[in-house]
Amino acid sequence: MPIELENVSYVHAPGTPFEAAALEDVSLRIGDGEWVGIMGHTGSGKTTLIQLIAGLLTPMHGRIRLDGQDINDRNYDRSELRRSLGMVFQYPEYQLFETTVEKDVGFGLKHSGLSRSEVKERVKWALETTGFIFEAVRSQPPLALSGGEKRRVAIAGVLAVKPKIMIFDEPIAGLDPLGRESFLQLASRLHQSGTTVIIVSHNADALGEFAQRLVVLDRGRILLDGSTREVFSDVSRMKKLRLGVSAPRQIAAMLSRRGVAVPQDIVGYDELLAALKSRLTGGEQ
User: Fold this and answer.
1) How far apart are CA 196 and CA 180, in angstroms?
2) End-to-end C-alpha distance for the chain, whole angstroms
3) What is the pLDDT of residues 155-164, one digit of tens each?
4) For the chain, which residues make up each domain, given as ranges?
5) Exposure of 73 by Cβ count < 10 A (0-12 exposed, 13-18 middle, 19+ buried)?
6) What single-letter DSSP state applies at residue 66?
7) Which are the contacts of 234, defined by CB distance < 8 A and separation ≥ 6?
């Protein structure tokens, strides 16, 4: 179920003193099962981009297609978009409102046509996928949970629909290291199961460890689009964009400047450790 944007432009508050171009002539294709990170400084158009993909905004110009169908065509079945694509907003825990965790996670399935037992099984699966024990948490009020637990419940509510595409807007913002790792492992499991994962994040380390591809936005246009290794290869350019690269990539570049020969396409910690071990042992295991 590929996503295709063709010459898409969007302007906020057109015709007012606050008019501002958010995206200009953006073309982009995201294939089935990709893990794509989206980077860019504040105001670069990241959130507008994912809101357009999710059908929450309508482009001023251009087309957005999901599986070949224009999602903004008057004849398009928007329920297909809701079934196929799930979006988790920044700080999704603020969206919790039901009296129990089970009701909150199952809310999006109310008009799914599933039986009560099927809804329960879907909710149970979603909660267990996000690391909960179903019987232990199902009757708890969601607002009584910790911050990290609330976020996982909100994510479970989106997962319960079983979308083929998951979009996350700054999902690890405000989480402690354990919470960040827990979320990234969850996203990794979803990706391994065949789900397309799109993440907007400023966290270069997280994207370096997990994202296969990076799209860098600047002033409403796509400035860079390639594999994570390709985008992070030019450390100085990323710094000029006020984005930076992952810490392992920075360390590899620093070692190279000091005369220590390590690969310069390193983006993750495991790769860096393997390269250093290989150098120290002369390539012996």
Assistant:
1) 19
2) 42
3) 899 999 999 9
4) 3-245, 246-285
5) exposed
6) E
7) none
